[in-house]
Amino acid sequence: MSxxxxxxxxxxxxxxxxxxxxxxxxxxxxLTTLSCVQYIHTIDGTxxxxxxxxxxxxxxxPHRSTLxxxxxxxxxxxxxxxxxxxxxxxxxxxxDLIQDNRQLRLxxxxxxxQEECTQHLNADALEAMVTQVLNAKWDVQxxxxxxxxx
Length: 150
What we know:
Elements: H1 3-7, E1 19-21, H2 24-31, E2 36-43, E3 46-59, E4 67-69, E5 72-76, E6 82-87, E7 93-99, E8 102-108, H3 112-146
Parallel strand pairs: 3-5
Antiparallel strand pairs: 1-6, 2-3, 2-8, 4-5, 6-7, 7-8
């Protein structure tokens, strides 16, 4: 590239506090900064569901889903056309993930609400791990019973 061509090159976007992000890597970078959020899912402006959860994973895979259940949030940036970064009147950032007529708003949660969300998720995760260990123990016992020479 010559010096003359580089003078006319369009600079990369610079988004500060508000704007539209279409690059999937940029979307991922913003979303990985989130931990506990309040979410509002709307279709055609009508609220479908809302709640609180912790963002456990942000990824880009056209063959996997964005999942929200049991206060756990797995965000696939490929599920959305773009991210709109905005600020509330109190200057708090929030993120609108848009795909056609669907919007998933993520509002970061701080302070005691964040602790409450994290504690609930940690209790659920611990319960799931204990269940897995107990199931594995039962599987081993069943396998051992199958090996009996009777």
